[in-house]
Every structure is written in structure tokens, then in C-alpha cells.
Amino acid sequence: MSAYLVSVLTEGAIFGIMALGLNVIWGWSGDFDLAYYGYIAVGAYMTLVLTIGAPIAPAQYILGATLPYPLAVVIAVISAMAVALVVGSIALGHLRGIYFSIVTLGAVYVMYVFAGQFVPLFDGYNGLSGLFDPMGDWFGLDYFSYQYFLMGLCLVMFALVYFLMSRVSSSRFGMALRTLREDERAAAAFGRDIYRLKLKGYLLGAALGGFAGALFAAYLTAFNTSAWSPIEVIVLYSAVLVGGRGNIRGVALGVVIMGLIVNESTRFLPSLPGVGAFNTDHPQVLLAARGAIIGLVLVLFLRFRPQGLLPERRFVDRQPAQPATDVAPLTA
Q1: What was the pLDDT predicted at 318?
Q2: Is it the case that residue 181 has pLDDT exceeding 80?
């Protein structure tokens, strides 16, 4: 198996966990969250500062611990949920629709600027690096064996998250989230606590985002603010939309189409020759083409198939109707 295929499968599994987390927030609860990638970043940053050890000048960052990778992942997930609790408590209190999206956009921008400008936190725009072979002490793997191990680990984690989300999807909690997405007033009329239910779904999605960020840190061995590209959020939303918003199988299909086929195929576009005296290639054109293709796919699906390739199955109450009882006629 080539190194390229190993990297594609590893990144695809991590991307799938990210999309499943976003599906909880947007697909089930119906909240268009623009702060989601911030929780991925928190998971990645916290995993790094808890595993790579003390900083070496001129680098600066908090903690600098050397915890075992699994323990660092747990703390990273909790940290992402803590940040989501603050954002969700503010945004979900009285805001819906575009107002919720604006607040979450402001939240992720604050996180981005704070991580970049406050250097002692995560070494500013330079970011963190050095998470090489985090499980090496446990299994004694060399560099090449570790790549296969990480691929297998990410695929297994994606399978477990997929199974968990499929169970949650058909549970009372999953169906309750869908009632909020369809009609909050009707759900409130039946006694549902709108705020608490939405906040629980928001924290679940953020936990999956933080977990994916922890795996992402192990895959990249580094993380900095340049990874907070808007194209990453667009690809995540496109995967959920194209596959089928709210449908677990649809999200998995969308990850394959948008995260692997579309996103990776643009890497093989021919580079344009330069003009002028230097005659250099223009690699930035490929990045622009990738965004344009993803945007075109989004527009086409929004116009012709907004429900996605695998639409969400509507749950119907199939309880048998109660037989009518015979009532004696009233007599004078």
C-alpha cells in the first residue's frame, strides 16, 4: 500500500469523525454553527501541549506536559466541550438562525485571533509541533509501521463513532433533536426543554470535533493557525449536505465524495505555467480551483437536490390505532 493511499485513508477517517460531529449540530439540531472548527483546533492544540513536553526557546506555550497520548486525548475532548459550553450557553440562549451563526462566527474569530496574537498560549502563529509517534512507547513501532498503525487506529475510531452515532440517531435523544429542528414551538408545547436539549446536542458535536482534532494532531504531528482555513469548514458542510443532512449513511457517503474524491482529485490538476521572465508555476491556482469546484458542487446540490444523495428517513409513529368502543345511545 502506497504512502499516499495510507495518508488519504487516515485523513478521510479523521474527516469523517469531524463530519459526524457537525451532523449532530447542523443535521439533527438544525444550528448552522460556524465555530465548529474552533473545537477541532482546541482538541489539536490541547493534545499537543499535553504530550510534546516543555517548550524550548524561543517557542512558548502552556503546560508542556508529557502525558500518555490516550490521556491527553481525553483531556482535549473535555477542553473542547468546556469551550463549547461557554459558546453554546451564550449563542443558544435566545438566538436562532442567522443570529446564532453570526455569534458563532464571532466566537471562532476570537479564538483564532487569541491563539495567534497571545504567543504564550500556543506559540502564536508559529503553532506547535513535535508529536512524533505518540504510541511508540506502548508498541515500539518504527516510523513506517506507525503510519499503518495510525491509519488502522483512525479507521477503527471512525467505525466506533459511526456505530455510536447510528445508535444515538434512532434513540429518543436523537429524535428529540430532530423535533427541535423541525418546529421548536411545537416541541416546547409538548414539554421539551429547548435550551438544555440543544446544548446537549451542541456539546456532543463539539466532543466529536475535539476528538477528531486530537487524531488530527497525531496525523499532522503539528498544528497552527494556518489550519483554520475557511475551506475546511466549507468542505465539512458540503460533505453533510451532499451526502444527506441528518442521515448517518449519507454523511459517510458525503465524506467519500467531497472529502476524498473531489478534494483529492484537485491535487492532480495540471499546474499552469508562469508568465514573464521567471516562468514559474502557480500552485495557488490549484487551491483556488479546489474551492471553486467545491462551491460549484454546493450550488448544484442546493438548486437541484437539497436533501442530498441519501435523504434522511422520516420517522413515523406506527402505533396501531385504538379501536373505537361502542357507546350506548343516550335515551331520554
Answers
A1: 45
A2: yes
Cβ atoms of residues 242 and 299 within 8 Å: no
Domain edges within the chain: 3-228, 229-313
Question: What's the Cα-to-Cα distance from 239 to each of 232, 250, 251, 253, 305, rounded to whole Å?
Answer: 11, 9, 6, 8, 14
Tally Cβ neighbours within 10 Å of residue 118. 12
pLDDT at residue number 287 = 64
And the C-alpha cell for 181?
429542528
Dihedral sign computed on CA atoms, order 127, 132, 133, 136:
negative
Cell of 304: 437541484
Q: How far apart are CA 273 and CA 310, in angstroms?
A: 41
Give the tens place of pLDDT for each residue, 234-271.
889 999 999 999 999 999 999 999 888 887 777 666 66
- On the CB side of 224, CA atoms within 13 Å amount to 13
Helices (H), the chain: 3-22, 36-49, 69-94, 98-117, 119-122, 136-139, 143-169, 172-182, 184-189, 194-220, 230-243, 248-254, 263-265, 283-304
User: What distance in Å separates the CA atoms of residue 60 and residue 328, rounded to the nearest whole number?
Assistant: 85
With 0.85 as the threshold, say if the pTM is over it: yes
